Amino acid sequence: MEIKYTIQGLLIYITIAAYLLALFVSLLRRPRAGHVLYVLGFVVAVVSFGYRWYHVRHVPMQNLFEVFLGLGMIYPVSVFCRRVLRIGGRSADMLIGAVVLVPAGFFFDAEPQKLPPALQSWLFAPHVAVYMISYVFMAKAASHAIWQLAGRSPIDDENLLPPEEATYKLICIGFPLLTLGLILGSVWGKLAWGDYWGWDPKELWSLASWLVYVGYLHYRYMFGKRHPRVNSVWAIAGVVVIVVTLLWVNLSRLFAGLHSYGAG
Amino acid sequence: MQGALWGPAEWRNNMVMSVQRGPKNRLRRAAMWAAMAIIMLLFFLSVYGAFIGPKRAKELFNSTVLGVYWVAFALLLMVGVVLFRRLLRVPALLLVHAGCILILAGAIWGSEAGRSLQKTLLGIDIVPTGQMQIHEGYSDNRVILEDNEIHELPFYIKLKDFRVEYYEPGHLYIQTRQGDTAWELPVEIGAELQLDPGFGAVEILRVFENFRITIDGDNRTAVDEPGTGINAALEVRIKTPDGRVSTRYVFDRSRGHIYPDSPLYMSYERVIRDYVSELQVIRNGRVVAEKDIEVNHPLHFGGYHFYQHSYDAQAAEYTVLMVSPDSGLASVYSGFLVLCIGAFWHFWLKRPPKVAMPQSAQTRSAEPDQEANKWKSNTQSRAY
Ligand code: HEM
Q1: Is the Cβ of A131 closer than 8 Å to some Cβ of chain B?
Q2: Arithmetic mean of pLDDT, B328-336
Q3: Does B15 sit within 8 Å of A207, measured CB to CB?
Q4: What is the ipTM of this complex?
């Protein structure tokens, strides 16, 4: 853990603070003020991302720091979900935005790095971007699943979908993106290393997370809403596996000696 | 499909798997459970594979037992398409599942087992994935496999030239011996840097691509001989605060010279941007193809891809290519495309619902696929 005493770091911390404040104010039933703070946080997040882009002079999606920085710009997702999908949960989005920026603010190295040859592919940015967006939807789906398990539904608007349906619909949005991300990664692997599948832990975890959602979709096809709690558990399991996928390189140190990332 | 809500899946929301009897439905139910089981089995295998590392995972997933599993998976998908007519009738769902079949079929065809099958059945002898090491100016057709077995390609690859490209500029990196302070200076002849008081100043005098010393009697002269090797270096002048001037040669980190009595440690930092091999394909003595390959930009010829894999780090005189046959690749890639189109179509390109659920009855009557309705039955699940 390390605090970043840089403009970049400051921008990240302001965003996190704005999101958390927005969440706090929303929980105090001041939705309008919460919304204003949320938008404010979003603007800072965009500035922060743009600053990074200017600083490193390539699309900032090269390392985990930049990916998480990008994930912090979550506001359009909230708008899209509310307007188009009739799915609420804006306060969860604020939390997701803040949580996602924590690793960028405190854990990942922000040192701009030159791209190693293997990363210099037009496929890399779309591969990461598609995954980023998909993960945001899956995280939002999981938050609705938690609501479902807790027996609560979004209170602020009658017109919104109940949590179980919201979860399903969010996964329907996220799943094609997850599929595309996996495929782009595979095609990129073929270009860079000569094999579209290398049985690498990172690949296997991302396959595993995709399979959880395939499982969810088939399960929900088989049983519909007959076991809503089980549906929710699937959705939450999906996000747990996604988190492991993202952090495996770091997590795997806990299992030292069990594997060698990227070897072979 | 008129009046579909959020995709065909949506109007199914409160309909669940049939509780009707009948052999066909029992078969469908069994197939569905089998699908769940086979998908979850792959989930657990993947997680296990992540723990054991890529090398052992590759062996595991290519083992005979898993070979049976892959074939079973592909077969089950086909059975599904036959059994559930909706999978055939709803184009997006067909694409999703056909995509998976194509990927599995291509992967099986291109696997080790698949290739030996091709050899026995069709007499096609494909050189498996391996490496080629070629020196500048030479050509070769030998592919060395992991187990050191050698296979020969039906054509030759010639390496015209190999080079390593770096990000410009490199950096002169300076650190105090205690390691508490560090400076960086972009490399440019004449560039100067004032260090903190007490350390003086440095200036870059010369830049060497390939540093050599020529000895002529007592005279030792540093010369640059680019092209014959890689030994990048900088000639740096150091002015200490008390006015003493000294010159030193700075190499990159891996071959750093130590100056034990200097309070400063220096290295020449260069970051590799790319490796480039200029290749020609030669068949029957004629050049039939030509390409400069880099990482991410392989050469494709005669059913093989040639990738920049490694190189001669001492002198950049030879390149190491990775050769991999494209057997089954077309099927895998079309499977990717088909699966992707199907997924977006199925989940994204349907009109979003106008009203909430209880519409399904209406939708159902608009659904032309009678069988689907039978199979899905009319069991309404309770809204929770
Ligand atoms: C990795 C393999 C598979 C993938 C990626 C996959 C994907 C999908 C997707 C995305 C759906 C749509 C679900 C929804 O609308 O909520 C679906 C539905 C379905 N899948 Fe699969 N599937 C796979 C394997 C199988 C297998 C092996 C079977 C064989 C029995 C099968 C049978 C079905 C059936 C019957 C449906 C329901 C179609 C309908 O909406 O009426 N799937 N699958």
Answers
A1: no
A2: 96
A3: no
A4: 0.89
